[in-house]
Each structure stands twice: as structure tokens, then as C-alpha cells.
Design brief:
- Helices cover 32% and strands 14% of the residues.
- Helix 1 packs parallel to helix 11 and helix 4 (102-118) packs across helix 6.
- The longest helix is centred in the last third of the chain and has 19 residues, at 298-316.
- A 6-stranded mixed sheet has the order 2-1-3-4-5-12. A 6-stranded parallel sheet has the order 7-6-8-9-10-11, sandwiched between helices.
- With 344 residues, the chain is an alpha/beta fold.
- It starts with a strand and ends in a 19-residue tail after the last strand.
- It binds 1,4-dihydronicotinamide adenine dinucleotide.
Length: 344
């Protein structure tokens, strides 16, 4: 029986993983703690680990896993910016779940956008207090507005479809534009300059880190609404805060935050949060923050568990997989072997 250690486990993760693991005769030990250099020793004796978005799968962790004879890191998420893919090459294979529900994330992005601009979160609190005043509740129509979508992969394209349903004009930027998708691609600066709403759906890489910064915010329309359901590091949070304080950015909807790893997914009510930038952002009336929950639907949790378990069983059956993340071909379409042979 294969034995896996799952880190950063929350109660809602367990049912689907327990179901699929049992059906495939895999034993999973669920750890609540994150995988870090300090906790990597918990993986000793296991065949592999199952980390999530905020586990620190850096070179030290990878070396430790390699020492324990672990050959597989089965990420239970799409993004792998928290994995030192280069350090893993030749030591430990990395598999991920490239798509589990693009609808979950895209629908959450739209939910945040609508909440923010139509103030439904404020209305909910007001009417619960029998305050039926509409002062300060004026929103704006999405119909006819321009939305700039950065990254037109699986999630970006679902978001585009949703925006089209609202009668929005869609412009987009992607370093690898989709062919035959009927999407109007424009240079990034043009997208920044012409969008009423900007929604980020590209991965976090060295190229995309802080793509929203003081300089790019200055190029944006006054009153722009920025939506980020991708990765916090895409936005320089200090610059965003400055843009909001200067009344240049009209609103921000953030499901992710650059320094989220020690904060998101945990209950800090009743505690003092040390991150002043996050605290100031939360205090803004035009900032809406959710705690990296865009993926959190029944369908997505089921797909995550099923694909992770399939990745594990396939790997140990000696199969190659398009879900492998490799230092040499982080974009699977660029893979020289077409994944017909193992990368190492
Ligand atoms: P995808 O791989 O299908 O699409 C990403 C797109 O971004 C691709 O079209 C790619 O060409 C493009 N891209 C790459 N570099 C770019 C650059 N420098 N500038 C502009 N575009 C660039 O990925 P998918 O499934 O659509 O996911 C997008 C992101 O959403 C993931 O990287 C992940 O960080 C985030 N995510 C967030 C979740 C949440 O719960 N908040 C859940 C799942 C994913």
C-alpha cells in the first residue's frame, strides 16, 4: 500500500481524499501543519507528499524529501510557484492538478467584482441591522464597460465568457495568445490604459511578479477595479494601497495576497495581525478580500482529490503524465519529449 503525507490539511479537504485514497488503496496521513524545512521530517517513511499552495517546497525541503527516498511531490493545486522546480529536477518528480474547476475560480472573480461594485456585502450588514438607507450604495453597470483579462488560459477564458454574458467589451493580454478564440488581444500597456476592470488570471513567475506596481497603476484609468484571483505576488500590495489612497484605483477585489502564506486559511479573529499593509487594505471601504477561497467548491474539491490520486497511481504504475511539472518544460506544450518518456 502506498503511503502519502498530506500537509496543510483542512477539514474540508479530507472527505474527497479519504474516498479516492480508499478506492485506490493509498494510505494518507493528514497533517494540519504546513510543509516547511522544519516539518519535512514528518514525511520520512512515506512514498510521497501532497502539498498545497502555501507549503514551502523549497530546495531544503526537496533535498530532505530526496534523502528520505521520496520520489513524488503530488501537488493538490494548479499553481506551483511555491515549488523550487529547478532544485527538484533529477531528484523528485512533481505532479499537479492543472485544472479542477476553472468555473469555481472565474465565478468567484465575478462574485467579488459584483459584490464590490454593487455593495451587496455592505447591504447585507445594513439590512440585518434594519438599516434600509441607500446612501453610499451607488454602483455602476458592468454592461458596456471594458474588462482587461490578463492570462487567457482555462480560468481567464471562462471569466471572459462570463463577462461577455454581462455585455462587457473584453480585451486581453497573454504571452501565448489563444488562436481562434475570438479574443481581442492588445499590448499590456494598452490593456492597463483602456480597462474599467482588470482581472488577473496568469501564473506567478519572475516575469509576472508585481506586474501591478506603481508604474502600471499610473497607466490605468482613474477608478479602475482590480480583481486578483490568481496569485498575490502579481500585485505590489504597497503600490496598490498607495493607488487606493490616492483615489486612483476605484476598488480592489483580492482573493490572494503576496504575504498570505502565514495568514490565509487561519482564524486570527481576536489576535493582532502584524501585517500593516493587509490591515490597511482590509480597512478600506473599496477593498474586498477573501482568503484564497476561489477554488472552494464541491466540484473542485472532488476533482482535486480524484486527479491527485490518479497522478499518484499513474506515477507508481510507471506512466508519464502531462500533469508533470518539469524544470525543462514548465509549459507542457513546450515539452521536447511530448511526455512520452520520463523527464529523468
Ligand atoms: P492556465 O495555465 O490555463 O492559464 C494561464 C495563462 O496565463 C496561459 O494562457 C499563459 O499563456 C498565460 N501567461 C503566462 N505567462 C503570462 C504573462 N507573463 N503574461 C500574461 N499571460 C501569461 O492556468 P489557469 O488554470 O487559467 O490558472 C491561472 C492561475 O490561477 C494559476 O496560475 C493560479 O495561480 C491561479 N489559481 C488560483 C486559484 C484560487 O483559488 N484563487 C485556484 C486555481 C488557480
Amino acid at each position: 500500500m502506498l503511503k502519502f503525507a498530506m500537509f496543510d490539511t483542512k477539514p474540508y479537504d479530507r472527505p474527497a481524499f479519504e474516498r479516492y485514497a480508499k478506492a485506490n488503496e493509498i494510505e494518507i496521513k493528514f497533517y494540519e501543519t504546513k510543509l516547511t524545512a522544519d516539518t519535512a521530517s514528518l514525511a520520512e517513511g512515506f512514498d510521497g507528499v501532497i502539498p498545497f499552495v502555501n507549503d514551502e517546497v523549497d530546495a531544503r525541503v526537496i533535498d530532505a524529501l530526496h534523502r528520505y527516498g521520496i520520489r513524488l511531490i503530488a501537488m493538490r493545486c494548479a499553481g506551483y510557484n511555491n515549488v523550487d522546480v529547478k532544485a527538484a529536477y533529477g531528484k523528485v518528480h512533481i505532479l499537479r492538478v492543472p485544472a479542477y474547476s476553472p468555473y469555481a475560480v472565474a465565478e468567484h472573480a465575478m462574485a467579488m467584482l459584483l459584490t464590490s461594485i454593487r455593495r451587496t456585502h455592505k447591504a447585507y450588514i445594513r439590512t440585518r441591522d434594519f438599516n434600509f438607507s441607500l446612501s453610499g450604495m451607488v454602483g455602476f453597470d458592468l454592461h458596456g464597460k471594458t474588462v482587461g483579462v490578463v492570462g487567457t488560459g482555462r480560468i481567464g477564458r471562462v471569466f471572459i465568457d462570463i463577462c461577455r454574458g454581462f455585455g462587457m467589451r473584453v480585451i486581453a493580454y497573454d504571452t501565448f495568445p489563444a488562436k481562434d478564440a475570438g479574443i481581442e488581444y492588445v499590448p499590456l500597456d494598452e490593456l492597463f490604459a483602456n480597462s474599467d476592470v482588470i482581472s488577473l488570471h496568469c501564473p506567478l513567475t519572475d516575469d509576472t511578479r508585481h506586474m501591478v506596481n506603481a508604474e502600471s497603476i499610473a497607466k490605468m484609468k482613474k477608478g479602475v477595479v482590480i480583481v486578483n484571483t490568481s496569485r498575490g505576488g502579481l500585485i505590489d500590495a504597497e503600490a496598490l494601497l498607495a493607488g487606493i489612497k490616492a483615489r486612483h484605483v476605484g476598488a480592489a477585489c483580492l482573493d490572494v495576497y503576496e504575504e498570505e502564506s502565514d495568514i490565509f486559511f487561519e482564524d486570527f479573529s481576536g489576535h493582532i495581525v502584524d501585517d500593516d499593509t493587509l490591515a490597511r487594505l482590509i480597512s478600506m471601504p473599496n477593498v474586498l478580500i477573501t482568503s484564497h477561497q476561489a477554488f472552494l467548491t464541491e466540484e473542485a474539491l472532488d476533482n482535486i482529490a480524484r486527479t491527485t490520486v490518479e497522478n499518484i497511481t499513474g506515477f507508481f504504475a510507471g506512466k508519464t503524465s502531462a500533469n508533470e511539472v518539469c524544470y525543462h518544460c514548465p509549459r507542457q506544450s513546450k515539452c521536447q519529449s511530448g511526455h512520452r518518456t520520463p523527464c529523468f
